[in-house]
Amino acid sequence: MTSMSTTPENVPQQDGSLTSKNMRRVLGSSFAGSAIEFYDFLLYATTAAVVFPVVFFPNVPPAVAAFASFTTLAAGYVARPLGGIIFGHFGDRLGRKGVLVTSMLMMGTATAAIGLLPPSSQIGAAAPILLVCLRVIQGLAVGGEWGGAMLIALEHAPGGKRGFAASFANLGAPAGSALASGSVALVSLLPDDQFFSWGWRIPFVFSIVLVTLGMFVRLKVAESPVFEKLENEAKKRRLPLVEVLTRSPKNLVLGILAALSQLTISGVVTVWAVNYAVEAGAGRTGVLNAKTMSAFILFLTTMISARASDRFGRKPVLMAGIILAIIWAYPVLLLIQAGTVTTFAIGVGVSQAIQGIILGPLAGFLAELFSTATRFTGASICFQTASAIGAGFTPVVASAVIAATGSITALGVAWIVVLAACLVGVLLAPEGRRRDLATIA
Description:
This protein is mainly alpha-helical.
């Protein structure tokens, strides 16, 4: 049975304020670490749309090259649930902090290696094979990062402010996305021969600098007090994965559906649509600049909706965002199909605002579905499985649907059906705003 509380006073108060020195350090670490890891991870997504079809799949038609490139992108998303399980196990058993340090080192190493990878013209088929291997390492790393960064903030936070605190891990995604898109847009100003030869590699190698800074911040953060309390009780526990699968299977499914609503928007609008808009005639640099600017919209709406979830609850805010996504799904595809930078900018800007409404309360919503002993594993499985399905395979599926039908109508209908299922999932889930983290079982 799940214990529930109906008053905020029953929620552990921790530091009592988000402005204390310790909480500022925790929130800064959660945001900075997440931003760096998502910079690395989403940098790949941006270059998969505009660079990798040329560098690693040069001898096939453009549509086939784009499909192959997006397939390598999907490999990282497929690895994310496995990363969530592996890192979730150690995070629930040994603590949140050590997992965060390890995941950041893995991500930085893999990203820098991609920047040094020779093209297919030099090493043949070994290039895309190595690219996939490095992408899988990225996926494993980010699979552990999100859950740890989110929980280290949420479990330090005072009662009534958990949603906003947990959102700092999610705020790292638009910040990392803006940095990734902006860096690629900057180097794309180079002549094409220089951009495709060495210019695109600079943002990947720059990850070494970012990871060094991130490690400096992260090593100063204390372990989660909620986890330390569990450790002090010294209760005998089963494997976190077994515990989640046997005690919380319904919450796993509902959590995946909730996260899927946000991640399909990401997959369609910020990955697939970039390639589609450029192929339809929109200027590459203009599209990348529009995507970069839209990340600031996502950042702002994520903060606002996270605050709103602490006041009104996770479910009402999530459901409002999903309903808006259902209404907007087909119009945004029409805007992208128009093939101009202006229509792309409008489409991605509104989509990012809607995505932010969903993203803001999502971290708190997922964390409050599971007990302290399984929270890292459970929340990570939900988010990373949804990432694999929604953000990982959506660009591949969208490309295949467009290639097969030549129309966006079928894609729009399928997207709306998925979003409707996500809405039902949130409706059936428990509201977590007033739940006591220490007594959720």
